[in-house]
Design goal:
This protein is of the alpha/beta class. The chain is built from five helices and five strands.
Length: 114
Amino acid sequence: GCRCVAHLRGLWNPTWLHNRLLAYYDVIICISQTVSRSLLEARPSTNNSCLIYDGIDLEQTHAASLASLPELESISNAATFRVGVVGNIKRWKGQHVMLEALKHLSPSIPPVQA
């Protein structure tokens, strides 16, 4: 009689057990459109999923960063362009692509922080 909710945070690559249990989930929460598409491509008959983005409080995150790393305050006030990739470090997330791209930036553009 308990509700069963799954929180799908990565690309869906189901085993036979996952496929068997899928029917018992009341809802499968996907954290992005990519994750949602991955689930539906693997299991087109899935009708118990929904998309809910994970949220972060940017003000709280920024304040916590400055409190734990005071040197960031001077960096954040500089006239720089900042880029980043938010997420855990996985090859498919593409952090390496961003780092490679930074090497190709022209020195004539404003300073860039990653």
